[in-house]
Queue: 2 jobs
Job 1
Amino acid sequence: MVSRAAILALLVLVLIPPITAARDHHGFRATLTPIQQLSPGKHSDAVRRDSHRIALLSYAATAVSKATTNSSVNVQALLENIQGGYNMNLSIGTPPRTFPVTVDTGSSLIWTQCAPCTKCFDLPDTPPFQPASSSTFSKLPCTSNFCQVIPNSSRSCNATGCMYHGTYGVGYTAGYLAMETINVGESSFPNVAFGCSTENGADNSSSGIVGLNRGPLSLVSQLGVGRFSYCLRSYTDAGESPILFGSLANLTDAKVQSTPLIKNPALTRSSFYYVNLTGITVGSTDLPITRTTFAFTETGLGGGTIVDSGTTLTHLIKEGYAMVRQAFVSQMGNLTAVNGTQFGLDLCFGTSGGGELQGVPALVLRFEGGAEYAVPRRSYFDVVAVDSRGRPAVECLLVIPAREDLSISIIGNVLQMDLHVLYDLDGEMFSFAPADCTKV
Ligand SMILES: *[C@@H]1O[C@H](CO)[C@@H](O)[C@H](O)[C@H]1NC(C)=O
Ligand SMILES: *[C@@H]1O[C@H](CO)[C@@H](O)[C@H](O)[C@H]1NC(C)=O
Ligand SMILES: *[C@@H]1O[C@H](CO)[C@@H](O)[C@H](O)[C@H]1NC(C)=O
Ligand SMILES: *[C@@H]1O[C@H](CO)[C@@H](O)[C@H](O)[C@H]1NC(C)=O
Ligand SMILES: *[C@@H]1O[C@H](CO)[C@@H](O)[C@H](O)[C@H]1NC(C)=O
Ligand SMILES: *[C@@H]1O[C@H](CO)[C@@H](O)[C@H](O)[C@H]1NC(C)=O
Ligand SMILES: *[C@@H]1O[C@H](CO)[C@@H](O)[C@H](O)[C@H]1NC(C)=O
Ligand SMILES: *[C@@H]1O[C@H](CO)[C@@H](O)[C@H](O)[C@H]1NC(C)=O
Ligand SMILES: *[C@@H]1O[C@H](CO)[C@@H](O)[C@H](O)[C@H]1NC(C)=O
């Protein structure tokens, strides 16, 4: 069992002057492709990757408390489980070279492997970027604001420039900051700061990441994009999904629901996308969710619910999960329970006769401001094992309990499928509407 990616956790000071003026924007678009299929038999791998990723999200939060008691410190993490997510093509340099990099709403840095490598993942289709072959490449000096936002503990400066390094658990990445012309879809942007990683440890899974959180180094921050949206097609469709930036990221559907993007009071400039999950209905049961169930914990470092592109399943903190589980169990009492451990999941049922399970209760999530999400069935309850004739044998709830030591709840990408979701950074709102992603 190999780990899936290299990691860099960055603590980022926020009392830094704004780095970029907003650039002039017409919208632009690109396409996303799923890195892996979530087909029957693949769920336990997905859960394992999720668990690494959540450990990192949590590590990022606790690192704040350990690093300093100064609450103006912000957290970014370059995360694991990039194989559970989606790739987007980023073309870098002049002439441009194309890299499929993982879109990550949980991290900030844009990075790719750069030659000459001390140690790089061996990716036959995507050899490392060659800075010497690009006429627009330049290294960033340590005095640059981009370098200064990387915390002291994760950077060092020498004649090479602004060196960053991050290590966590089994993953590792290190390199230096540089500037390049970056193309996304049909649009070209000069002077974008990115990480040239020359040392990557522990896995061979990706040529890089494009960070989309609110941190100053992220693509959306650097390009001054006030909003972005995506619409993930179901894993079973295996097709391309759209991602839209700037004015093109516009949700005009009549059924659009909106809820504020909220701040963790202890991490006021946190770069995660937190929403306020206020209620859950399972079938006929309105669960007794209170304002404390998914609230931030008293220390402020835990709790809360984030929307994340790179986590596969949906993870709810213990108390909230227990209510959800209880409601499903009591409404599916006539079905045959199956131990979900072998699938990495918790609540599973055997199907009889090879058909889809009947009588699975509906799941509705409610958010601050009255936004409601009636989750499509295959986004929360799906086939995880088939019989010898390829017919459904076991179906499971794709919502699982968060690890005990990690108190954050995460809305993963499976739950976001067939939904057009909009991150309105300027308006501090998260909006969504059911959609046919092939028509967005
Ligand atoms: C990314 O680029 C490669 C090669 O340039 C192309 O084959 C692939 O279809 C592109 N993928 C997406 C999602 O646009
Ligand atoms: C927090 O850090 C900032 C920047 O390093 C500093 O200006 C501020 O005084 C610090 N606040 C506290 C309470 O230490
Ligand atoms: C980084 O931190 C170390 C120890 O905490 C300190 O000695 C050093 O001066 C700091 N460097 C910068 C550039 O702030
Ligand atoms: C700068 O530091 C990095 C990592 O610490 C090292 O690999 C590199 O050789 C150094 N460059 C110079 C010019 O000293
Ligand atoms: C790359 O990773 C895959 C699984 O993620 C593994 O099967 C393969 O052996 C790895 N290759 C190398 C060269 O490490
Ligand atoms: C979104 O579309 C609506 C209707 O087409 C338009 O009125 C509005 O200005 C657009 N918003 C943005 C940010 O482009
Ligand atoms: C499920 O199976 C695992 C081992 O395969 C076992 O440890 C666990 O106790 C079982 N759970 C239940 C509820 O039987
Ligand atoms: C279980 O009960 C539900 C209604 O409560 C029904 O729709 C479903 O068909 C039943 N399933 C089985 C296997 O009997
Ligand atoms: C979440 O929404 C509820 C209900 O509107 C409110 O009482 C609570 O303070 C909100 N929590 C946060 C962290 O904003």
Job 2
Amino acid sequence: MKLLLILVVASVGFAIADDDAEEKVWTEDEVEALKASVTSDVYATVPELIAQNGYTAEIHYVTTEDGYILQMHRIPATPTSPASDDKPVVLLMHALLGSAADWVIMGPEKGFAYILADAGYDVWLGNARGTKYSRNHTTLTDFTGPDFWYFDWHEIGYYDQPAMIDYALEVTGQEKVIFIGHSQGTTTFYVMASLRPEYNDKIKVMFSLAPIAYVSHCKSVLLQFVDQFEYGLSHLLKLIGAYEFLPNGSFLTKIGSVYCNEDALTRYLCSNVLFLITGFDISNLNQTMLSAIFGHTPAGASTRQILHYAQLIRSGKFGYYDQDWISNLFNYGSIEAPDYNLTAVTAPVHVFYSTNDYFSAVEDVEKHYTELGNPIEMYRVPYKKWNHVDYLWGITAKEFVYDPVISRIKANYSD
Ligand SMILES: *[C@@H]1O[C@H](CO)[C@@H](O)[C@H](O)[C@H]1NC(C)=O
Ligand SMILES: *[C@@H]1O[C@H](CO)[C@@H](O)[C@H](O)[C@H]1NC(C)=O
Ligand SMILES: *[C@@H]1O[C@H](CO)[C@@H](O)[C@H](O)[C@H]1NC(C)=O
Ligand SMILES: *[C@@H]1O[C@H](CO)[C@@H](O)[C@H](O)[C@H]1NC(C)=O
């Protein structure tokens, strides 16, 4: 245990050393004032937020082959751009513990969903099974128990992702979507595109923002902790939840007090499990927006999603959920859990990555890129401290990511 602590502290220390020396130190009082600045936006749903800003918001229900009922959100029209049949469909897929809210909580002119809608796209926002918008099922009625939560991002990729694409194409009468995934939203895309290769034909282009396939270089504090856990799985599950991922508050505080002792603001960030997974660097975060972020995130995930990623840190593979060898043999037909085949992902993929991302490390991004069936570009975000959540909430996200994505679509993927 001691060894682990030293290792992780060393890696966190390394990343923090990159900060500007003159960065502000937050006091408890200032953080309390920040928490008190919570506005009603924090409690609004995604369609409510979209409508409040004068955009058209639609709610759609999509049923998967295995019975999960998912909510999708759609922005078909904006104050300046009316709905029309020929707007290209863009599907945005969120990260682990995220939801459709990830793309809208920054508001118009800042959130990617609004920027795409303003640019003339028909914007569809996915919500994976288990997020607060997608807790429903055709036959299951207990949304807290083992049956509902028996899935990880494999099932989100295999079932939810194709169902969302088919649904959006059917409603709009179009043939292909432009897919933009962030973090786990890229993992689920790769699972789908490798296991159901026919879906590659339904993708005009994929933008992988902070892609996650291989994770052996990931510096995520919580995932490393889960991976190294030495008291056995059942004790771990008591701390983080056996079905839904609901880490015990005192457990989080304990981890946070070891890794996040910089100042009151970092302690506050570390009280949110999302930041314990992704890491953070507040230089590009608008601190006024923290209450909005905390109001919508974490939006829900299964413990198996976390365990599956943690397994891959150790195995160095991008593979199926590893069960005991008998179950592997029974379920997968081999003693070892099989790998996903990235070469079977034949849709064109643009990868956006950065050098200060705890979760999506450069070595892992490069490795997955060379295996993809149709890799187009590795775009390194030109900002040294760019981190995993800056793709959603970075003050300069429009300049460094959204505008470059849209210019690529307009130049190369507009028929
Ligand atoms: C769950 O789905 C059923 C069938 O579509 C629907 O009638 C019900 O309102 C949904 N429940 C929630 C909480 O969304
Ligand atoms: C959280 O964990 C602590 C010990 O680490 C335990 O005493 C407490 O009962 C747990 N709380 C819940 C809600 O499980
Ligand atoms: C931070 O967010 C607040 C509230 O939305 C906004 O007024 C301000 O302009 C933002 N600051 C920056 C640097 O984007
Ligand atoms: C992976 O997919 C590619 C392209 O479909 C195929 O040629 C190759 O044989 C597959 N590799 C494995 C190990 O299945």
